[in-house]
Amino acid sequence: MKTILLSSFAMFLVLFSTQVSAQEQPNHDHNKDYVVLTKKVDQLKPILLTAEALAEEDGDHFGEFQIIVCGKDISQLTNKSKMAPYVEQANKLGVELVACGFSLNKFEVDRNEIPKDMTTVENGILHNLQLQKKGFYSLGL
Length: 141
Fold this sequence. Notes:
- The chain is α/β, with parallel strands linked by helices.
- It has a single domain (28-140), classed as Hypothetical Protein Ychn, Chain: A (3-Layer(aba) Sandwich).
- It is built from 5 helices and 5 strands.
- A 5-stranded parallel beta sheet has the order 4-3-2-1-5, sandwiched between helices.
- Helix 2 (44-58) runs parallel beside helix 3 (80-93).
- Keywords: Signal.
């Protein structure tokens, strides 16, 4: 009886530890996707540098990287000379720049004046949460 009990206990430990180990292993079979929500246009440079570092670190598993701009600074998106280097670097890295439609409306920014390479969503916060639901790593600044 003791032998059966000890054998059963040992089998339980082996199965349980294997199951835990499998759960702790990161899944390297899928891409890593990222989204950053920022209220400051001047943060685009360090965010893009971060995207570049993550692309190198993740290698073939680097997926999507989106930067959502919301808030008062959204009016700076119309400054072509300021935005040109950010847009160029984002395009080079495959990073999608996204403007929040609520912020564009609130601060009366003409959507035709933002860079053509930028995407506009009606609600940047909702877009961020929807991406999180899809498994994106998210950071709000």
